[in-house]
Amino acid sequence: MAIALVGLPGAGKSAVGRRLGARLDLPFVDTDHVIEQRIGCSIRDYFEREGEIAFRDLEQAAIADLAAQPHGVLATGGGAVLREANRQQLRDHFHVIYLRSSPEDLFRRLRHDVKRPLLQVADPLGRLRELHDARDPLYRETAHEVVDTGRPSIAMLVNIIVMQLELAGIVAAGTPPEEPSD
Length: 182
Ligand SMILES: Nc1ncnc2c1ncn2[C@@H]1O[C@H](COP(=O)(O)OP(=O)(O)OP(=O)(O)O)[C@@H](O)[C@H]1O
Ligand SMILES: O=C(O)C1=C[C@@H](O)[C@@H](O)[C@H](O)C1
Ligand SMILES: [Mg+2]
Known about the structure:
Layout: E1 2-6, H1 13-24, E2 28-30, H2 31-39, H3 43-50, H4 52-68, E3 72-75, H5 84-93, E4 95-100, H6 103-110, H7 124-142, E5 145-148, H8 154-167
Parallel strand pairs: 1-3, 1-4, 2-3, 4-5
Helix pairs in contact: 1-8, 2-4, 3-4, 4-5, 5-7, 6-7
Bound molecules: adenosine-5'-triphosphate, (3R,4S,5R)-3,4,5-trihydroxycyclohex-1-ENE-1-carboxylic acid and magnesium ion.
Catalytic activity: shikimate + ATP = 3-phosphoshikimate + ADP + H(+)
Enzyme class: transferase
Subunit structure: Monomer.
């Protein structure tokens, strides 16, 4: 079984994906980590040194490799849907879930973050609004399901996703629920 999470930076793809993988007893893979292992430095440093297009090429190669053997829970980078080739690979080989978040919620979560290169600007909330407007249609086009992340905790989101996967017949019913620890 192969599940991919898409959504804006801070939507919870890594945090939710890791716990969803543990819950379903599936390996968890984060494309950002795969890329960092390949380049041997942080994405932020690579962005600064080589630029966004070089990063997007690496991201496309990583997604193509992962889609060739789809298995487990995949957290994609926030910009993975920008390229048509990635949207198609994800849609064709994974059950794709869009973790939708408002720019305001994301800003609250990420305002002290220094790791996300696209948000190191004077007006990060404005930047998140632009990213949301530009990418929301692409996330929707890629995803088989949309889950709103505004109110639920990470543990609740895992429970909601598992319930939806059970209803859709993608995982067997009856997986014990996540403890609400956050
Ligand atoms: N539903 C939520 N409630 C509370 N905190 C959350 C929620 N979702 C994510 N967070 C927190 O927000 C921060 C960003 O989450 P995470 O790193 O999982 O985002 P991401 O979607 O993987 O972002 P990126 O695309 O930049 O990799 C983390 O500190 C995470 O614990
Ligand atoms: O939203 C984006 O374009 C990005 C999100 C991160 O996950 C990384 O993939 C990178 O920082 C780019
Ligand atoms: Mg992440």
